[in-house]
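User: Structure with tryptophan, tokens only please.
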Amino acid sequence: MPGAEEFVVTPYEVRGRVDYDRLRELFGTQELTAALLERIRRLAGGELHPLLARGIYYTHRDLGGLLDAFEGGRPFFLYSGRGPSGPLHTSHLAQFEICRWLQERLGVPMYIQITDDEKFWSRAGLTREETIRWGFENLYDILALGFDPKTTRVFFDSKSIAALYPLAIRVARKIPYSSVKAVFGLEPSTNIGWIFYTALQTVPCFWPSWAERTSVPCLIPCGIDQDPHFRLTRDIAEGLGYPKPALLHSRMVPGLLGEAAMSTTGGSPENALFLNDPPQAVERKVRNAFTGGRATVEEQRRLGATPEVCSVWALWKSRFAESEEVFTRVTADCRSGKMLCGECKGLLLERVHRFYQAHEAAREKVKGWAESTIITSPPAGLES
Ligand code: TRP
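Assistant:
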């Protein structure tokens, strides 16, 4: 993708200023239309989730078909995952927050994949001990969002391999090396674990169908950077007798420093609010964050600021504005120059500190049951 607006989005690299309309065309995903959002709202009851209402989720694959089936009485399951390369930051929560909301509102099961193997293969600097430790730390953070222990199951790759492997064998035979190379841009020196890995990310899409011996549709809310994995999944699904997973894609939330997307590998720790940051670090990062403010107070009062380029506004939008009313007011007062950046940051920080406190308490509770959600063996009667 040459040119002035160069950007790269793959599961292993997000770089540059992403043009999301162009990305949708490049990836060939479908627009999340107002009509589809209205259908979700109706099925879920009440207000649409802010991540949907505010356009953070913006494209999909086959969502309409999945909703048709659901309305016709055919349940689906949710699937999403996390590569445990370090602590989660607040923007990582978007994909799980939307899953939690759909689980609660639609009463559907959730499968979470923790890919300690993937990150060991794709990040040369990480040890096995680290990817396992972060796997558990990340899992606690995810479950603490409020997932239902009764209908949430986890594939923690290295612990769940006996459950995953029978399907991985079948999946891997269907994926040509040339596709993996083309889709992920891997090098001749890439280790073979990483080349194989995408097979394991596909397995949870099919696992419930396999376990229940019937076709169970799958919906994957994820960052759009993960779409390439699931294009491979969708190509091979029918050949294995499983439904193609549907997808719901989000934009990548911009980093606090204002340039690259937060998921950029090896980015500065100052670029995001990590869930294990102490309050002083949270305070410092927000206070130093890049904004859409003007050079002087006088100018900002007169001309207003630009929320669309502001990393603090992105935090309000993606997580911390608790109501549409608050979000609309913050946005309007920023644009008009009524509220300056320092005040805005202070108001945001109140919300962030409150969230961290509540999250810490929820996380401690989750530790008591988190391990019991991990699937460790294949479904009874299969592959024995
Ligand atoms: N590859 C993802 C990551 O690096 C982890 C992952 C596994 C995932 N399964 C998924 C992400 C399903 C989204 C949906 O973080």
